[in-house]
């Protein structure tokens, strides 16, 4: 048998059932298609730090595959075009594809099924649980987090799989080129690199050596630094680390050091991720609708100047400016920071939330469709929040999370306050309430 495996959000060798299922056979062609970034919400392309992190992840995977006599073909082509051509070119008999929950990803899969005349198998490998473990299945998936958590938290998490000891060789004639590295370096404030080995290093250091998980519940809202929260999200999003690997590391820590409210809280956050992964499968295109899952009518604006100022970190809020500078410089922002920046755009600027989500999509090194759009909808009150949205008092957040202003100063948040009016095309001053 000659197989092709298309990696998506599962850029790892270990705990990868899809890859393992292709570890026998005569030949195997490993492929990855660079994410398409069509124009959306006045934005296009991916930010330089997200681009860097993805390149590092792919280069690391290429090296790991090479050590097994394999290679990774990285294409800047839509898989709907590329995979059928490769199947024909290399006389492939079966195709496997890694998980990537999301509406456009599902459409890709559907189109591929229609275009291929060889069997195609999807390996859902981005979650803690399998779909058939979910009580009631996907049809009965809870619409809110708390009932979801209660339904799943006691389910067994499957042990992560070992990586295949050997893989079949690539088909004759397949040629691989190393992904070019980024000219951008990681920002010194966020010196993390892509790839599975780096993910394991971060887990080891944060959880086992520095034991930061011990107090995680009380530090997770830190706006800066690498001590407060696990910062595992970039590797979880690319799949360089599987959620089961993260959960099993946590279980191992609890066995050795004991369970406490912080370790339990970290598991709960993994369940938040899980919730949004499954919701993304069920909610499809509604994840991108202005009225969200609730199809709620909202009177929002698109004011280009406000949006540009928010993106550039040039608003009237020094804390929001600092957060936006942190995001574009490093590709990362803490969960608390994301909530503050999102609430400001939605509630203070009365802006369509999707523009903010698109800007986060462009820059976050941990961009994940379900978690990003799901969290934005949650804050905008059009998603899964039972309280109908969150409006953060920005001054209160600043005094609680940046009491001495050091975060705001470090990320250059102070800006001259600008007049709250603009001129329209005919130069009429328009009051903004
Ligand atoms: C507006 C907004 C946009 C977001 N966009 C993304 C995104 O694109 N990708 C992404 O992975 N997370 C997103 N999040 C969720 C959360 O902010 C990040 O997962 C978290 O900050 C990552 O840091 P960490 O790994 O240190 O998290 P930790 O606090 O250490 O949590 C461990 C893991 O749990 C998961 N997790 C934690 N909080 C959440 C949450 N609220 N929702 C979903 N999963 C969670 C993540 O996988 C995280 O790595 C967003 C949150 C908001 C408010």
Condensed summary:
The protein is an alpha/beta fold and 433 residues long. It is built from 17 helices and seven strands. The model has no long low-confidence stretch (mean pLDDT 95).
What key phrases describe this protein's structure?
single chain; 433 residues; Rossmann fold; Serine Threonine Protein Phosphatase 5, Tetratricopeptide repeat; DNA Cyclobutane Dipyrimidine Photolyase, subunit A, domain 3; 3 domains; two-stranded antiparallel sheet; 17 helices; 44% helix; globular; binds flavin-adenine dinucleotide
Low-confidence stretches: none
| Overall morphology | globular
Name the bound molecules. Answer: flavin-adenine dinucleotide
Spatially, the strands of the biggest sheet line up as 3-2-1-4-5
Question: What name does the CATH topology of the largest domain carry?
Answer: DNA Cyclobutane Dipyrimidine Photolyase, subunit A, domain 3
Q: List SSEs in N-to-C order.
A: EHEHEHEHEHHHHHHHHHHHHHEE
How much is the average pLDDT?
Answer: 95
* Spatial gap, N to C terminus: 67 Å
> Proportion of β residues?
5-15%
Helix percentage: 40-55%
Total count of strands:
7
What's the gyration radius in Å?
22 Å
């Amino acid at each position: 048998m000659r197989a092709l495996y298309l990696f998506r959000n599962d850029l790892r060798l270990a705990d990868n059932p899809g890859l393992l299922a292709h570890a026998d056979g005569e030949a195997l062609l490993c492929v990855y298609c660079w994410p398409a970034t069509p124009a959306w919400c006045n934005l296009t392309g991916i930010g330089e730090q997200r681009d860097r992190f993805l390149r590092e992840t792919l280069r690391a995977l290429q090296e790991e595959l090479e050590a097994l006599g394999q290679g990774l073909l990285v294409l800047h082509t839509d898989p709907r075009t590329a995979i059928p051509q490769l199947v024909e070119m290399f006389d492939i008999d079966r195709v496997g594809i890694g998980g990537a929950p999301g509406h456009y990803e599902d459409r890709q899969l559907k189109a591929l099924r229609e275009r291929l005349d060889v069997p195609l198998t999807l390996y859902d490998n981005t979650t803690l649980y399998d779909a058939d473990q979910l009580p009631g299945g996907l049809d009965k998936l809870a619409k809110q987090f708390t009932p979801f958590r209660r339904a799943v938290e006691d389910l067994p998490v499957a042990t992560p799989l070992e990586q295949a000891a050997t893989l079949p060789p690539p088909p004759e004639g397949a040629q691989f080129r190393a992904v070019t590295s980024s000219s951008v370096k990681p920002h010194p404030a966020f010196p993390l690199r892509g790839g599975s080995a780096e993910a394991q290093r971060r887990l080891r250091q944060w959880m086992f050596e520095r034991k930061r998980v011990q107090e995680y519940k009380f530090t997770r809202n830190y706006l800066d630094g690498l001590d407060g929260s696990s910062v595992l999200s970039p590797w979880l999003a690319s799949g360089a680390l599987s959620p089961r690997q993260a959960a099993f590391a946590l279980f191992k820590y609890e066995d050795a050091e004991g369970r406490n409210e912080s370790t339990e809280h970290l598991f709960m956050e993994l369940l938040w991720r899980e919730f949004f992964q499954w919701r993304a499968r069920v909610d499809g295109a509604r994840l991108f609708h202005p009225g969200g899952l609730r199809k709620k009518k909202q009177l929002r604006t698109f004011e280009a100047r406000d949006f540009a100022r928010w993106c550039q970190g040039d608003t009237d809020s020094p804390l929001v400016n600092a957060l936006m500078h942190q995001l574009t410089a490093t590709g990362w922002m803490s969960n608390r920071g994301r909530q503050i920046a999102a609430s400001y755009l939605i509630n203070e600027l009365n802006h369509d939330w999707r523009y903010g989500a698109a800007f986060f999509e462009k820059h976050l090194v941990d961009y994940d469709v379900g978690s990003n759009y799901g969290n934005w909808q949650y804050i905008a009150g059009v998603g899964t929040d039972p309280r109908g949205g969150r409006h953060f008092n920005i001054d209160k957040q600043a005094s609680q999370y940046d009491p001495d202003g050091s975060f705001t100063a470090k990320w250059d948040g102070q800006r001259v306050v600008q007049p709250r009016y603009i001129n329209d095309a005919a130069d009429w001053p328009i009051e903004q309430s």
